[in-house]
Amino acid sequence: MPVSALRLAVAINPHASFGRRADVGPRVVEALRAAGHTVFSLHEANIELLRLSVQESVLAGIDALVVVGGDGMVSLGTNVAAGTALPLAIVACGTGNDLARGLGIPTGNTAESVQYLLESLTRPPRAIDAARVCHGGLTTWFAGALSAGFDAVVNERANLMTRPKGASRYIFALLRELLTFRPIAYRVTVDGVTSEVRAMLISVANNVSIGGGMRIAPEAKIDDGFLDLFQVKPLSRLAFLRVFPKVFSGTHTGHPRVELRLCRSVRIEAEGVVAYADGERVGALPVQVDIAPGALLLYV
């Protein structure tokens, strides 16, 4: 066995991209074993069983965790590895792949993704920031972004949709929710300073994008020790529809109703609002979000 060989747990979501990329996991496992690594291939019927399998592998002793899928798998991996010395590696083959895009990890080509993984494992892992969310006595980690407004409502609807396939689900979900959505009254505490605000969107970003390429915080840096707080103040439906397409290019930031600011800590309170982090449901507000600089090790 080569000196550089690692003990790796490979957690696979066979339903990534609605099952269209089901070949990726087996190809990753095959390539890693051919490279001399010891590989524990993990795939279960649902995400909770997979999470348990991953935790058992960590307890048994592994050198790194490889997640194969989209941002949901990144969320699983982040919540296992953040705040520990366990490195994470990502093979992106999901619908959104937002964290992978932000890190420059290949997303569309299986052979390229496998080669990228093999090469990244020959280098020391990179430390990036992660965000710790405290909610209802629980703690959840994210590496990408947390949504707690219209964007979270859209995420919840999109996750329940089976059509259309791909990232366009978010656009259809957005247009549907826009018909009835009203600005939300929030209490937001930023680095200890509290204010009452009305907003359509509030997100706390560590990465650039959410929802498969919506560049909500185009200047966000994933290792600067800061969060990017993104808010969209109340707009008419027509004005919102004019602003929304600009999110994909990141040119929305000049709009007078769009606010971006750096911070290290955010508490968000509102009635009847559910937060999402890295595309996964966190729970009802309030949430407390704090940056943890360098808390996540990644092979990139």
Describe this structure in words.
With 300 residues, this protein is α+β, with helices and mostly antiparallel strands. The protein folds into 2 domains: 7-123, 3-Layer(aba) Sandwich (Rossmann fold), CATH 3.40.50.10330; 133-294, Tumour Suppressor Smad4 (Sandwich), CATH 2.60.200. Helix content is 27%, strand content 32%. It has helices at 24-34, 47-60, 71-81, 98-103, 110-120, 150-160, 168-178, 237-243; strands at 7-12, 38-42, 64-69, 88-92, 126-135, 138-142, 145-147, 184-190, 193-199, 201-205, 227-232, 258-263, 265-269, 274-277, 280-284, 287-298. The strands form 3 sheets. A 6-stranded antiparallel β-sheet has the order 6-5-16-13-8-9, with helices on one face. A hairpin with a 2-residue loop joins strand 5 and strand 6. Helix 6 (150-160) crosses helix 7 (168-178). The model has no long low-confidence stretch (mean pLDDT 89).
Helix/strand class = alpha+beta
| CATH domain class name of the largest domain | Mainly Beta
Number of helices: 8
Number of structurally distinct domains: 2
- Helices and strands, in order, run as EHEHEHEHHEEEHHEEEEHEEEEE
- Biggest sheet, spatial arrangement of strands: 6-5-16-13-8-9
Largest sheet: 6 strands, antiparallel
For this structure, the CATH topology of the largest domain is Tumour Suppressor Smad4
Strand content: 25-35%
Chain-averaged pLDDT: 89
Helical proportion, percent range: 25-40%
Global outline: globular
**Terminal CA distance:** 24 Å
Radius of gyration: 19 Å
List the uncertain runs. Answer: none
**What is the CATH architecture annotation of the largest domain?**
Sandwich
Number of strands: 16
EC number: 2.7.1.107
GO molecular function, one term: ATP binding
Enzyme class: transferase
Protein name: Diacylglycerol kinase (ATP)
